[in-house]
Sequence to fold (367 residues):
Amino acid sequence: MNPQHQKRLRKIRKSVKMMGVSALLVSNIKNVSYLTGFTGSAGYLFITPNSQVLLSDSRYLAQLQDECAELEVDIRTAGSTMMDSVKRIADEAKFTSVGFESTSLTKHEYDQLASMNPRIDWVPSVGLVESARAIKDKIEIKAIRRAINLNQRAFEVITHQLHLDQTERQIAHNLEHQMRSFGAQGCAFDPIVGVGDRSALPHGRPGNKKVGESPFLLIDWGAEVDHYMSDLTRVVFTGKVPAKYRKIYEIVLQAQSAAIKKIRPGVSLKTVDNAARGVIESAGFGPKFGHGLGHGFGLEIHETPFISPIHEGKLMPGMVITIEPGIYLPNFGGVRIEDDILVTPDGCEVLSDLPRQIDECTVDVGR
Fold:
């Protein structure tokens, strides 16, 4: 296990000790990966104040030896379940209380835990590992920078290849192809491509509408590189921009700029959201901006912190977040401009640098 994961585990072990429980059962596989380096799809992690053991199955034996050779592991066979392993280890260690990730386990899984041993008190825990994940270290930030760079390169290629007969679905497929050809593991999420009025669907699925059917299209895409994500959104213009669309685009651009200016350590998440939301509300489009302003990302595309009118908390150095205000007008079109931001000790750094101005986002297209 490398020093990076050892440091993370030490931090969580201290939290386990402060909780006053015998152990913490980590069941969110992304949290397991963050703490150990294991990248398989099946694994639980028991953490005590002094040790840890990773539970998995024989499919991952060689992978575990490669990714975290020094970590104690418990490998089950086909004749037993993960819960069987949990019970056996808890019984052997004589745990009296165990914290568990209540946002990860299902009700059925919790009922299985609760019925295993009546002497064990199962204590719900929320966000313990996720709060640690919110602060990225230098290695994580480096991976995110690579993902953003690759993301932008792929976008530049596909926008130079745009033609009027291309469909939304073809653009999405081309984006994924380019990201993979540049070295991505794949998409961070299914790309969103919306031409014309379909750009008003914040999470619309790419369909068969063609580029030539409107002078604007919205693209929201991300790459996964070394298990870390990126997340960007741009509007691309292929013809004369309608005055109404230009108006809402400039409002969203102003809102994003207002929010970014607020980003620095110690500022509340609500303050950043309010900066952008206030611009949009003052322009009369408040009801047309119905989602949060942004979110953290890393091993997952949506993770702590969440920037919205309802989420508590403050920005801290090392957080990497999106800022993505939008205005969505059904049957006409929508605007969202999204960039990736690193909170630094004295402010912030915009990690993405694709153009945002309308004239800079206008491309020549052919047939």
Notes: The first strand starts at residue 23 and ends at 26.
